[in-house]
Amino acid sequence: MDKPVTVDNPIPDLSLVVPCYNEASHLESSVAILLKVLWFFHQPLLNALNLTKLSPKRRLAWSVAAFITPGLLLYFRGTLKQRLVQLTIAFLLLPLSYLPNLVVAESSAFYRTQSALTFLIVVYIFLALWGYRRVFDWPAAAMSLTAVVGLAALTSSLLAAHNVRAYFAVPQAQELELMRGYLTQRESARVSRIHIIRYTWKDSIAPTVRYDEFGLPSSAQPWAPGSMAYLVLREVNPEHASIPIEVAAAEDATRVESDDLVVDMRQLLSLGSPMHLDKQRR
């Protein structure tokens, strides 16, 4: 039986095959297709039009689209009607580049699924730049275009470096530092068990969390804190690396004995943002 369209399940299961025509099923499939199209515009396409910006803004997406559309019209050859046809084909290629993710029931706009879509938008941006150059056909136009491309490459490199630092390096370094502080503040010989309280992905100290790809705290995953503690013990006190380690979510509080070492990763939230922490460390 098909899944109903609800808040928890906004996209019905499109993988089900209906053996015979059913008016209700046909209507539900039509609604599912419409919702999928709307989802494509509201998430994958919005993310792709924001290029390297991980906090997508509709204004930036509309600005990029407004830059591309006239530029492509100027780039294409032929009459106005022929150019409009070519522009329509170019726009139809956008959902086609994301087609494998549109035909499945799952609706998760991970960045790893948007490679072809984003690359196509970047190609359109360069073609639009070439179209504008045809209008402003003077000797300095070629040099200006080269400067713009070079500046765009430099900006993308700086943004990539910022994203790696802000979403991965600094937050995870602070997580490891907090873990090390807990494990070195008490003599390991007096500890019978290490009890780690992890926090949720909503409590990330990164600027934002984007799916499971950017800003996701390592200690929010059930399999990560135990390994982190073991590696730190191997580093600071290898003879006690065999101490039992128990990992629990914040809402799953268990009884803690007096000789247990409690590592509360939620304390990371009280230290501030990753940029502030990084400045303090310097």
Fold and architecture overview:
- Helix 3 (58-75) crosses helix 4 and helix 3 packs across helix 6.
- By secondary structure, the protein is mainly alpha-helical.
- A three-stranded parallel sheet has the order 2-1-3, covered by helices on one side.
- Helices cover 55% and strands 6% of the residues.
- Residues 1-26 and 274-282 have low confidence and may be disordered.
- It has helices spanning 23-42, 44-49, 58-75, 80-97, 99-102, 115-135, 139-184, 224-236, 274-281, and strands at 193-198, 245-249, 260-264.
- The chain has two domains: 23-161, no CATH class; 166-281.
- The protein contains nine helices and three strands; from the N terminus they run H-H-H-H-H-H-H-E-H-E-E-H.
How are the SSEs placed, and which strands pair?
Layout lengths: L22 H20 L1 H6 L8 H18 L4 H18 L1 H4 L12 H21 L3 H46 L8 E6 L25 H13 L8 E5 L10 E5 L9 H8 L1
Parallel strand pairs: 1-2, 1-3
Short description:
The protein is mainly alpha-helical and 282 residues long.
The total beta strand count reads 3
Low-pLDDT windows of residues: 1-26, 274-282
The end-to-end distance, rounded to whole angstroms, is 59 Å
User: Given the helix and strand composition, which structural class is it?
Assistant: mainly alpha
Q: Main beta sheet: strand number and arrangement? A: 3 strands, parallel
Quaternary class: single chain
Q: What percentage of amino acids are in beta strands?
A: 5-15%
Return the domain count: 2
Total of helices: 9
Specify Rg, calculated over alpha carbons: 26 Å
Question: Percent range for helical residues?
Answer: 40-55%
Instruction: Give the overall silhouette.
Output: elongated
The residue-averaged pLDDT reads 79
Order of strands side by side in the largest beta sheet? 2-1-3
